[in-house]
Amino acid sequence: MLTFVGLVASGTYLSNLIRDGGLVPKVGPPELNLVVTDFSDGLITLRLPAGAGKDKLLKHNGLLGLDGESSYNQVGTIVSEKGDEVQRQFFEKSGAPAVGERVRLDSYAYEGDPVSALGIPFEEVHFTSSAGQFPAWYIDGDDDTWVVIVHGRNASPVEALRVIPALAEMGMPVLVINYRNDPDLPASEDGYHRYGVTEWEDLEGAIHYAMNNGARDVVLFGYSMGGGIVANLMYQSPLLGHVSAVVLDSPMLHLSRTIDWGGQQLGYPQFALNYAKFWAKVRFSVDYSATDYLTRSDELEVPIFLIHGGEDKTIPFSISEDFARDKSDVVTPYFIEGADHVLAWNLDPDAYEKALTDFLAAIPD
């Protein structure tokens, strides 16, 4: 009896890690977890305070946002590092932070909306799905191929600000969407992220909006979990015929392997991870077969631009390697050594944008 109780208790604990770490939406502003220790001559020094948790961006090179208590700026290349202190290039946007100010590094590199961040006009529009009505950013363009962008888990349309200028310069209309369980928007019945199993219906609603408002066809662009949403739409929706191409940045194409990857980095043995996944399936209806988007990849015929960083700590790079190998007939890989999760653009924005726009320009009419 005690053994049974212990097994149930351990299963509950481990499956709660999956629930809390992957299914429950995170809300609230991110923690300002760094301190400015020096600022001079276009350089800024940032320190992780003693006792603070890790910051994966602190020593990640490239262009990042610097979000402060009363400012938002950008930092660039790492100049020097020592322990938990890093000196980087500094690019002022809204006023330099003071020495001693609390800040955080931001992978989105921009804040606000297309007008405030980039000076690009946009309109807030709304589309509907089975879950309700959702807002989206719409940036107008001369082309009749729209790009529909789907943000990742616990992210927002702000994630897309990095690529909007390149797409707008091409003349492609851009629709950056929200979906179920985003803050203050319609939620699913259980309130959980389902990694595309249900959210694809919201993307379908966005495609309907595009087609009803002048689009001849669409390019789907998914970040992280947004990549899983895009993938499942390609398997589930009769609107696939209107999709001329797909862009996937660090896509979540296999939930079970992604959970294993996260657990391994925390030091859990595989038998414990298998046990956790079993209990998550029982307790929270996690469907691993439905979130394995590689199994049916032989059905895909749409051109796909696949972006992934070789140092991704969130979604294993090996998933994209397998996908690119198995679907070499339609997948154009853009793999970046040294980039963590959804950070390929940040390492080299010019190279990323050129590769992206070259792919889009080659899409057959």
Notable traits:
365 residues; Thrombin, subunit H; Rossmann fold; eight-stranded mixed sheet; six-stranded antiparallel beta barrel; globular; disordered N terminus
Description:
The chain has 10 helices and 14 strands. With 365 residues, the protein is of the alpha/beta class. It folds into 2 domains: 34-106, Thrombin, subunit H (Beta Barrel); 114-254 and 291-361, 3-Layer(aba) Sandwich (Rossmann fold). The N and C termini lie far apart (67 Å).
Strand order of the main beta sheet, please?
7-8-10-9-11-12-13-14
**What is the domain total for the residues?**
2
CATH architecture of the largest domain: 3-Layer(aba) Sandwich
Strand content: 15-25%
Arithmetic mean pLDDT: 95
Note poorly predicted spans: 1-7
Q: Please give the CATH class of the largest domain.
A: Alpha Beta
Structural class: alpha/beta
One letter per element, helices H and strands E, the order comes to HEEEEEEHEEEHEHEHEHHEHEHH
Through-space gap between termini = 67 Å
Q: Helical segment tally? A: 10
Number-wise, the strands total 14
Annotate the secondary structure layout:
Blueprint: H1 2-23, E1 34-40, E2 43-47, E3 64-68, E4 72-82, E5 85-91, E6 102-106, H2 114-118, E7 123-129, E8 132-139, E9 145-150, H3 164-169, E10 174-177, H4 200-212, E11 217-223, H5 225-236, E12 243-249, H6 255-265, H7 270-284, E13 304-309, H8 317-326, E14 331-336, H9 344-347, H10 349-361
Parallel strand pairs: 9-10, 9-11, 11-12, 12-13, 13-14
Antiparallel strand pairs: 1-2, 1-6, 2-5, 3-4, 3-6, 4-5, 7-8, 8-10
